[in-house]
Amino acid sequence: MNISVKSVHFHADAKLLTYVEKKVSRLRKLFGRIEDVEVHLKLEDNGGRIQEKITEIRMHVPGGWLMDKKTSKTFEAAIDASVDTLKRQLVRYKEKMSDHANEKISDRIRRA
After folding, report:
1. 59 pLDDT above the threshold of 80
2. Domain 2-111 has what CATH class?
3. What value, to the nearest 5°, has the Cα angle with vertex 93 and ends 92 and 94?
4. How many Å apart are CA 102 and CA 95, to the nearest integer?
């Protein structure tokens, strides 16, 4: 699984990058066939001193992409929320894949 982290309008420090890679790599335990993960970290300037942190994660799995976008006060909180959402998406994706495989098997049995 390739994990690429891109920071937009700022330079991410090594601590943040290792945190992102650690959290995202845990998704591999749920589904071992994740091919690529793209993480975009952005700062949203809302005119005040406090800037919102935006995290966009795109995960390439066989047959498509799973995506999530979260906004929070810290990147860590946004990443945690995105990873939780992607876990749920992976579970649904795996269920859909197993249902599809079961349909193919039952079709073969009916034809035989």
Report:
1. yes
2. alpha beta
3. 90
4. 10
Name the strands in the sheet holding 36-44, side by side, starting at the edge strand that comes first in the sequence: 2-8, 36-44, 52-61, 64-72
Q: Give the DSSP H/E element, type plus range, for residue 8.
A: strand 2-8
CA distance 67 to 8: 18
Question: Could you give phi then psi for residue 110, rounded to 5 degrees?
Answer: -65, -35
Q: Domain locations in the chain?
A: 2-111
Mean pLDDT of 14-36: 94
User: At which residue do the structure tokens 């976008």 appear?
Assistant: 69
pLDDT at residue 75, as a whole number: 95
The C-alpha angle with vertex 101 and arms to 86 and 68, in degrees rounded to 5, equals 15
